[in-house]
Amino acid sequence: MKKAAYLLPKINYDKIYGEAERQDLARLVAVSPIHLTSELVSENPELLSDIQVIISGWGCVTFDERILSGAPDLEVVLYGAGSIRSAVTDTFWDRGIRITSGYGVNAIAVAEYTLSQILFCLKDGWRFAQAMKKQRTKPAVWEIPGAYGSTVGIVSLGMVGRRVAELLRHFDLNVLAYDPYASESVAAELGVRLVSLEEIFKTSDVVTLHTPNLPETQKMITGELIRSMKSGSVLINSSRGAVVDEPAMIEVLKHRCADLFAVLDVTHPEPPVPNSPLYTLDNVVLTPHIAGVMSGEIHRMGRCMVEELERFLGGEKMKFEITRVMADKLA
Asked: Which one from 95, 98, 256, 289 is the annotated catalytic residue?
């Protein structure tokens, strides 16, 4: 039986790995009685000397050359969280160590949040809710896009964007997508039509962003694109705040407070600075980065790691394994 160790702060261990997940992991590998943390391993890399499987998540150590010098037998890291960027290094990849992440199951939660907002925004739900609070009575009902025949634009067809597209297939909507890496065959499978970024913004009733934060995607969503959105449309961002030119977006929202709306689960910086207009603009709804897994949902990531370990030990391909090439394109 392979030797394994938990390596993450106790608080995140409790969040990610419920009692059922811990029992199942202990059935599959010999888990070290020593609960490791980043601080402990940084001071004593030799604690990893006979460990083959690391079970981790948020707060994992960075696997640099010094840490890995103490882990000659390490084969796989089960990262029960989303982005692995803080954990991996060139040395990690050069050693051929494998890593899988809970990013795929986190995508389920983000897609569910996004779907809820798309449908609510097509009803102009936030505008009606704000009008009712201001007027203290039922507001006059105006024309809304609705969830029949309206157009939804998805920016980026990564794990989350694809899942959103799959969920939208259950509704009578016209779904567009922009992703320079997506093929026509993939688009056909998802039931979306690939178009330019400019067409997405000009023609959609709701635009939802699912772009990873990479050097080439920062400020990709310009003020000009947002300004081109049609009257009554909504921008949803549950990806990363840095992909939007935020100062330019704020200026557009200031000038179009009556006919353009934004639902922002992420900003840049996050949260917005105390004097940001995003707190006071009537046409902005802010949520505090809640789209991903929260509370009991986080155990889904732990369950995913159990399933990935079963695949690894059985010689099967891990469903959410991240390769060096993939890591460059993920958030």
From this structure: 289
